[in-house]
Amino acid sequence: MVKFTVPVAGVDKEYLTQLEYALAFASEDIQTYALKEKELQIEVEVSSEKVVESTRQKIQELIQRYQQREFGMLKNVQFKQERELPVFDAWQQLVDRKWVGQIGEGHVILRGVAAQLMQLIDAKVDRIFVTAFDAEREVYPSTIRCTTLDRCKHFTSFPEHIDFVAHLRRDLDVINGFTQDCREKGWASANTRGRMSDSEYAISPSCCYHCYEGMEGWKLEGQGRCTTMILGCHRYEGANHKTLSRLNAFTMREVVWVGHPRFVITARAKAEEMIMQWAKDWELVGTFETANDMFFTEDYAVKASFQRQQQAKKELRLRIPFENQDISVFSSNFHAQTFGKAFNITLGEKPATSGCIGWGYERWVYAIFSQFGLDTSKWPQKLQEEFKAHHGRQFDGKY
Fold first, then answer.
1. Which residues of the chain have pLDDT under 70?
2. Which of 22, 62, 199, 315 could pair covalently with 164 via S-S, beta carbons 3.0-4.6 A apart?
3. For the chain, which residues make up each domain, given as ranges?
4. Exposed/middle/buried for 208, CB within 10 Å: 0-12, 13-18, 19+?
5. Taking the alpha carbons of 286, 120, 93, 33 in that order, is the dihedral positive or negative?
6. How far apart are CA 83 and CA 283, in angstroms?
7. How many angstroms separate the Cα of 154 from the Cα of each of 202, 213, 280, 329?
């Protein structure tokens, strides 16, 4: 192994966390890396001396993306709730209790109180948000056409995320050869080499894309329509797969509005007030603030800063004391006419406007355990009351 450092200059503090996230995709030759904010440098460990220079150049290219300041990084905090929190390793305790089982990088099983807590959160979304907006439930496949992702501009914004889906080629020799290799050697990724079809589908990285493609060519009436859905989504995030804060496979719930701009903007604003009230009721420590997506393209700074200036994305970010970080558990997004134009969804002869709100359920579960512990009797009063009312009795935590 060879270690070296790369200086970080001219990158605003708001960008540093996102730069650190992006480093996971800089090069497969990187074994370990760490962004040292105090020293303003990146410490890197690579496999050999011969890849040092090429890896350095790739890291420097990433740094240059985050040095740009076309519009600045607006930060507007609408809600903030603070108090002293205990610091303990909730992830390890959940694993030890068997309420979380890790079954691969970024893949988990939730059991016991962790599963019950997720059920409560989903039920609360139904009871409050779905009811308030009369949202129509839709059910989607877990995979999505690559052509749809292309029309949504996903490949030019988040190419690193995609888990593509393929199958063995329709050829008897190919299928027999694959089977024989597995029989003789057991599973190995090399067994598929040269035997896979082209990828026409991917595992969906988000809920709402299916909503828009499913409405292609629709002419809406009235103010528009509201839908809700829940989906197991996938986003490959490299070395960022840690604990429940960033999973490869995760559960997303969304409420989507498509229609007149006033209809979408008014509903979105009402939903933001509702989520802040939820955070207050459960005494969650965090903020609701402007944000930007983790764009992974050369025009990152333009997209991110424009998104913040327009307040097109806002997030409820909850504190994880043990990790000394805040994680996004809820987002509010305004798309303007982007998807109305892409899928020819119209209202009154004009492209429809859209917006959505989304919950990352595993992150909610992790944040609650990280802030309040695994003993439900010590949770905030309203959270305790809702948990008990929803489940009738509390799980004893034994397996």
1. 14, 68-74, 292-311, 393-399
2. 199
3. 2-67, 77-158+205-391, 166-200
4. buried
5. negative
6. 9
7. 12, 14, 34, 21
Q: How many residues does the chain have?
A: 399
Confidence at residue 72, expressed as pLDDT on a 0 to 100 scale = 55
384 in Cβ contact with 375 (< 8 Å): no
Q: Which amino acid is at 107?
A: H
**Residue 314 CB partners (closer than 8 Å, separation 6+):** 78, 272, 288, 289, 290, 291, 331, 332
What pLDDT score does 65 carry? Answer: 77
* CB distance 131 to 322 below 8 Å: no
CATH superfamily of domain region 77-158+205-391? Bira Bifunctional Protein; Domain 2 (3.30.930.10)
Sheet holding 219-220, edge to edge: 219-220, 346-347, 350-351
pLDDT score for 89: 97
Look up residue 33 and give its two tokens: 């890396």
pTM of model > 0.70: yes
Can you read off the two tokens belonging to residue 65? 């993306």
- Residue 364 neighbours by CB under 8 Å, 6+ apart: 117, 118, 121, 318, 329, 330
Burial of 164 (0-12, 13-18, 19+ CB in 10 A): middle
The answer to whether the beta carbons of residues 21 and 294 sit under 8 Å apart is yes
Distance CA 91, CA 308 (A): 32
CATH 3.30.70.100, domain 2-67, yes or no: yes
Query: In the structure encoding, which two tokens stand for residue 79, read together?
Result: 């809600």
pLDDT digits (tens, 9 = 90+) for 62-76: 888 777 655 455 678
